[in-house]
Amino acid sequence: MKIKDKTLGGVTLLDLSGKIMGGEDYDVFQGKVKSLVAEGKIDLLLDMGGVDWVNSTGLGILVAGYTTLRKNNGRMKICCVSRRVDDILIVSGLKRVFEVFDSREEAIASFGPTASTG
């Protein structure tokens, strides 16, 4: 998994790409989330347009990040998932946990007026 981050108003966008499968991915993702929380950046949008596969351990990584943010009064939302990843979220029941949006713009707007696409 690769992560690129960018701040859009009050929202931190993480562009994820590759496969999310566990191992080192857990350390990288959780380290990134904890670092953002330490900086006071607790509203997080995951753009998963570049993610082609998530296994059960990868789902656990996403849940761990979500839990860390929730414990710090933050929010984590997801956008731009492929059909394959969307199916995995549905089957796992996590589509009822995560807010999932079709577009980045729609997801950013859902955070409220402090977010901006600029």
Would you kindly provide a brief summary of this structure?
The protein is an alpha/beta fold and about 120 residues long. It has four helices and five strands; from the N terminus they run E-E-H-E-H-E-H-E-H.
Write out key terms for the chains shown.
single chain; 118 residues; alpha/beta; five-stranded mixed beta sheet; 40% helix
In terms of topology, how is this protein built?
Layout: E1 2-8, E2 11-20, H1 24-38, E3 43-54, H2 56-71, E4 75-79, H3 83-92, E5 99-101, H4 104-109
Parallel strand pairs: 2-3, 3-4, 4-5
Antiparallel strand pairs: 1-2
Helix pairs in contact: 1-2
Molecular structure report:
- This protein is α/β, with parallel strands linked by helices.
- It has helices at residues 24-38, 56-71, 83-92, 104-109, and strands at residues 2-8, 11-20, 43-54, 75-79, 99-101.
- A 5-stranded mixed sheet has the order 1-2-3-4-5.
- Helix 1 (24-38) links the parallel strand 2 and strand 3 (43-54).
- Helix 1 (24-38) packs parallel to helix 2.
- The longest helix is centred in the middle third of the chain and has 16 residues, at 56-71.
- The radius of gyration is 13 Å and the shape is globular.
Largest sheet: 5 strands, mixed
Portion in beta strands: 25-35%
What's the total helix number? Answer: 4
Total count of domains: 1
Examine the secondary-structure arrangement and name the CATH architecture. 2-Layer Sandwich
- Regions with pLDDT < 50 over 5+ consecutive residues? none
Globally, the shape reads globular
Tell me the radius of gyration.
13 Å
Q: What is the level 1 CATH name? A: Alpha Beta
CATH superfamily name?
STAS domain
| Category from helices, strands and their pairing | alpha/beta
| CATH topology grouping | Transcription Regulator spoIIAA
Record the strand order, biggest sheet. 1-2-3-4-5
Mean pLDDT, nearest integer? Answer: 93
Distance between the termini: 26 Å
Helical amount: 25-40%
Order of helices and strands: EEHEHEHEH
Number of strands: 5
